[in-house]
Amino acid sequence: MNKTPERKIWFLFLILAFAVFLGITKGSVGIPFLELFSEANRPILHLRLLRIFLAAIAASGLAVSGAALQAILRNPLAEPYLLGTSSGAGLGAVLGIIMGIQGLWLPLAAFLGATLSFILVYNLAREGNKVPVQSLILAGVVVSIALSGILVFAISISPNEALHGIMWWLWGSMHVYDTKLICVVSIIVIAGIAAMYMFSQDLNAISIGEEEAVHLGINTEAVKKIVFLLTSLVTASVVSICGIIGFVGLIIPHMMRFIVGPAHRRLIPATCLAAASFMIICDMLSRSLMPPMEIPIGVITALVGAPIFIILLRTRQGMR
């Protein structure tokens, strides 16, 4: 690694540190940094640190899943939401909540939904022993729309008392203070990211072209299946605790390719740092813009992410 990428990674660390500083000092009530450590403010510091940790974990999982899917599908628009994984996980979690499932069983319900949606998309797209990329994306879009419709129907027939909580959760929230649940989800997400990092060289080769990857001795179909399973597991875990949060898995990998290049051994760590900073700042904005009301974080990521994506798109078109 030459010095320039190293400096860029260190710069991302500084941005993350600044985001954490904003996350603990800003919110519905601003508190000076040193006053956070007073006896009276320690509970607030504890809750804000939990939110920051959860935001960093959730964002890293979604963004790395997006980077891995974009590589194996060779499609810049690929992300867990596009392939129906988020919708499947959301439907599984919503059905679980409606049936009264809570706590540590909720990630399992979301994972079951994500896995079933993955199996459905995979089998719809499969042609013999191969899974054409275009068929996979089309099947993913169709399944995502269908599952979203079922999800809305499930919410519409749920008791009114549960409806508000489900709708709030569905748009994304870091309002989770169950440390056991956060620990379980964190272990799954970190293990998933580490496993995807181990496939960095395979992702580099497949992103260039499947034929080239096969010539290099890579079993592309096996790698695709494993990466799909890993992204489903990570996405399901994140959705089960934070709801459906869009744009993170789409824009952060694009931004980091501009900054550190397409090699996944560098792209994945950079994506984790940038995604964590982005989500922590979005969470801070969700608590600060209309106090004491908290805006769902999915609304903030969409409002901030859409203009960034348009700028990236225009910049890329201008470079051609």
Strand content: under 5%
Listing every helix as H and every strand as E from the N terminus to the C terminus, the arrangement reads: HHHHHHHHHHHHH
What structural class should be given to the helix and strand makeup? mainly alpha
The rounded distance between the terminal residues' Cα atoms is 27 Å
How does this structure look, described?
This protein is mostly helical and about 325 residues long. It is globular. The model has no long low-confidence stretch (mean pLDDT about 85).
Summarize this structure as a short list of keywords or feature phrases:
single chain, 320 residues, mainly alpha, 76% helix
Question: What's the arrangement of secondary structure elements?
Answer:
Elements: H1 3-25, H2 42-73, H3 85-98, H4 105-125, H5 133-156, H6 160-170, H7 179-198, H8 200-208, H9 210-215, H10 220-242, H11 248-260, H12 264-288, H13 297-319
Helix pairs in contact: 1-12, 2-7, 2-8, 2-10, 2-11, 2-12, 3-4, 3-5, 3-10, 4-5, 4-10, 7-10, 11-12, 11-13, 12-13
Structure in a nutshell:
The protein has 13 helices and no strands.
